[in-house]
């Protein structure tokens, strides 16, 4: 006699559980994407031709690429150092510090930018302290409103993402391998470079691609810090859909290009991680 299957495995139950996710995906991704695609391709693709023919687009693409590589690289290096330090702490202290590190993820880009202005702006707390030792406050605060300052401010909410991804890998890493390498004559640096880093490299690449996609498409912090003075693609899109913009088809085309670039960056990280996991189990 066949035993009845648990209710959780019935197709009807699984379909009901999938309904909320399908609804969110449909109303907040599929339908908006379809509407934007209709606008972008309304003229037979002429909107894409106008975007590609505009030299401002290519300068914005270069600016976005430079900003993305700078912020993602800095965030990855700092995030790795923080995650490595946390992995050596006790579980209780690590949990407390993780709570503080994760706080920036709850802030919007505008709040982050406002906090950096209050701290490093012309009348900021740090700027005033540096003024007592002879640092020019105007020149120092100008850095914040430059691409370097934008990369620095963006790293504030990118570093926690890197830490969250790298920490589980470092916690599961067998430190006896480092001890064995050092006992065979390797220095601490050589042990980290030759033993630890190759094993966490796939996760590090995934983390790099994640934060790169985030900073490539983010505009809130950039808009608050540099306005539209910095030529990057998200601010170009903002200009096209603001009150001064009138070419909504080009805005739709640019938004699709932004989504395609960010999705491609994420896909690179996922493919690299899947390939590394397949090679590890081979």
Short précis:
With 282 residues, the protein is mainly α.
Describe this structure in words.
By secondary structure, the protein is an all-alpha fold. The protein is 79% helix and 0% strand. It has 13 helices and no strands. Helix 1 (11-40) crosses helix 13 and helix 3 packs across helix 10. The longest helix has 33 residues, at 55-87. The chain is globular and about 70 Å long.
Task: Spell out the key features of this protein.
single chain; mainly alpha; MetI-like fold; globular; 282 residues; 13 helices
**Alpha-beta classification:** mainly alpha
Number of helices: 13
Topology-level CATH name: MetI-like fold
Fourth CATH level, the homologous superfamily: MetI-like
Could you describe the largest sheet, including whether it forms a barrel? Answer: none
Please outline the helices and strands.
Layout lengths: L10 H30 L5 H8 L1 H33 L3 H12 L6 H12 L4 H7 L5 H8 L2 H25 L4 H8 L4 H30 L2 H7 L6 H9 L6 H33 L2
Helix pairs in contact: 1-13, 2-13, 3-8, 3-10, 5-8, 5-11, 8-10, 8-11, 9-10, 10-13, 12-13
């Amino acid at each position: 006699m066949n035993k009845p299957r648990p209710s959780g495995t019935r197709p009807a139950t699984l379909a009901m559980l999938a309904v909320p996710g399908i609804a969110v995906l449909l109303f907040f991704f599929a339908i908006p994407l379809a509407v934007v695609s209709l606008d972008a391709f309304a003229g037979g693709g002429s909107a894409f031709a106008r975007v590609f023919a505009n030299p401002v687009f290519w300068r914005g693409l270069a600016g976005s690429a430079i900003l993305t590589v700078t912020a993602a690289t800095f965030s990855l290096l700092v995030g790795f150092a923080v995650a490595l330090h946390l992995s050596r702490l006790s579980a209780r202290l690590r949990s407390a510090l993780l709570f503080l590190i994760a706080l920036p993820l709850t802030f919007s880009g505008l709040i982050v930018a406002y906090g950096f202005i209050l701290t490093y702006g012309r009348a900021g707390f740090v700027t005033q302290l540096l003024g007592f030792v002879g640092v020019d406050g105007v020149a120092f605060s100008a850095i914040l409103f430059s691409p370097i300052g934008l990369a620095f401010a963006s790293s504030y909410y990118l570093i926690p993402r890197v830490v969250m991804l790298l920490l589980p890998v470092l916690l599961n890493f067998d430190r006896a391998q480092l001890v064995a390498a050092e006992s065979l004559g390797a220095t601490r640096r050589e042990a980290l470079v030759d033993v630890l880093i190759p094993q966490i490299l796939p996760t590090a690449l995934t983390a790099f691609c994640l934060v790169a996609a985030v900073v490539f498409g983010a505009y809130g912090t950039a808009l608050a810090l540099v306005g539209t003075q910095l030529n990057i693609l998200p601010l170009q899109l903002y200009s096209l859909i603001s009150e001064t913009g009138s070419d909504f088809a080009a805005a739709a085309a640019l938004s699709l290009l932004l989504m395609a670039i960010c999705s491609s960056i994420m896909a690179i990280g996922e493919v690299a991680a899947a390939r590394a996991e397949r090679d590890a189990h081979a």
